[in-house]
Amino acid sequence: MKAIITTKYGSPDVLQLRNVEKPVPKDNEVLIKIYAATITTAGTMMRTGYPLIGRLFMGLTKPKNAIAGTGFSGKIEAIGEKVQLFKIGDSVFGESLFHFGTHAEYVCIEEEGIIALKPENISYEEAAVVGDGHITSMNFLKKLAKIKVGQRILINGASGSLGTAAVQIAKHFGAEITAVCSTRNLELVKSLGADNVIDYTHEDFTNNGKTYDIIYDTVGKSTFAKCKNSLTKNGAFISPVLSMSLLFQMVKTAIFGSKKALFSATGTLPIETIRTFLIEIKELMENGQLRSVIDRHYSLEQVADAHRYIETGHKTGNVVLSIKKK
């Protein structure tokens, strides 16, 4: 099968398209012919090996998982002898968190892993990106911040992968949403459910005197210290981008004060928890309450170009790797 192989850390040029051995499912696994996968900002960071602390998990001198990629969608082509939850021909989607491997034509996933039947009303591309923005934002808003009806939430980076999902999820939970993005994406975030919008090229939300119960900085461009005065008395600053500043503020606010700085590594949660998020997201998508925003599509041969585009910092929503023509 064809796959993108990364044998060392570096620029997008380290990504190589090669022919490798097709995986064989174990007794409790399904073999999925991948139709689409997702290419994420986190994936570009993993390719570079920065921040260096990440190499403790990814591999010290080179990626321990040569085939990158976590989010996927496709059809089951073969099943292990003990598989009972799925059958050959099922259209599925989900995440491969521990072994990665979705930037390829095939991947094996445990039947009790992060996998579910694909909703019939969404495309394979729309399903493939769920593992990035949708699941992460569901974790941050529902589990970490414990979002409630009527709360005021500000989403910084509202037009990205996490942001576009967060606007819709926050709307589902009945929050009042203020979305921060660039001029060109204001109408998009309004269409997703934002009640108020702020164009960061013209206004700094930390200086407008308004306060929020939750500030979700999806892009790691702000800090708890800068946002503290924009939080309500018991407000929370949450971000999926871990830095030394955020780590320090997490420790400090855990002891002092009612305003909190919070972080969660979604990928380290129990499989059962992440799968619960996936099923909840699936139901929202089936009901038309949540959709995937897709910016660009790339082929396996164009993966390096996709990485370069993402690194410009100007993508809207998600970038998809289209692997099989339907």
Write the layout of secondary structure elements.
Elements (H helix, E strand, L loop, with lengths): L1 E5 L8 E5 L9 E11 L1 H8 L6 H4 L12 E9 L11 E5 L10 E5 L3 E4 L6 H5 L4 H12 L7 E5 L4 H12 L3 E6 L4 H7 L3 E4 L12 E6 L6 H4 L3 E8 L5 H12 L4 E3 L8 H16 L7 E5 L4 H8 L7 E5 L4
Parallel strand pairs: 8-9, 8-11, 9-10, 11-12, 12-13, 14-15
Antiparallel strand pairs: 1-2, 3-4, 3-6, 3-15, 4-5, 5-7
Outline the structure in words.
This protein is of the alpha/beta class and about 325 residues long. The chain folds into 2 domains: about 1-130 and about 290-320, Quinone Oxidoreductase, Chain A, domain 1 (Alpha-Beta Complex); about 135-265, Rossmann fold, CATH 3.40.50. It is about 25% helix and about 25% strand. Strands 3, 4, 5, 6, 7, 14 and 15 form a 7-stranded mixed beta sheet that branches. A 6-stranded parallel beta sheet has the order 10-9-8-11-12-13. The chain has a two-stranded antiparallel sheet with strand order 1-2. Helix 7 (about 225) links the parallel strand 11 (about 210-215) and strand 12 (about 230-240).
Q: Which architecture name of the largest domain does CATH use?
A: Alpha-Beta Complex
Helices, by number, come to 10
| Helix percentage | 25-40%
Q: How would you name the CATH homologous superfamily of the largest domain?
A: Medium-chain alcohol dehydrogenases, catalytic domain
Beta content comes to 25-35%
Annotated CATH topology of the largest domain: Quinone Oxidoreductase, Chain A, domain 1
Q: What's the shape?
A: globular
CATH class category label of the largest domain? Alpha Beta
Low-confidence stretches: none
What string gives the helices and strands in order? EEEHHEEEEHHEHEHEEHEHEHEHE
**Class from helix and strand fractions:** alpha/beta
Reported for the largest beta sheet, the result is: 7 strands, mixed
Radius of gyration: 20 Å
When the domains are counted, the total is 2
Cα(first) to Cα(last) distance is: 18 Å
Q: What is the overall pLDDT average?
A: 95
> Can you count the beta strands?
15
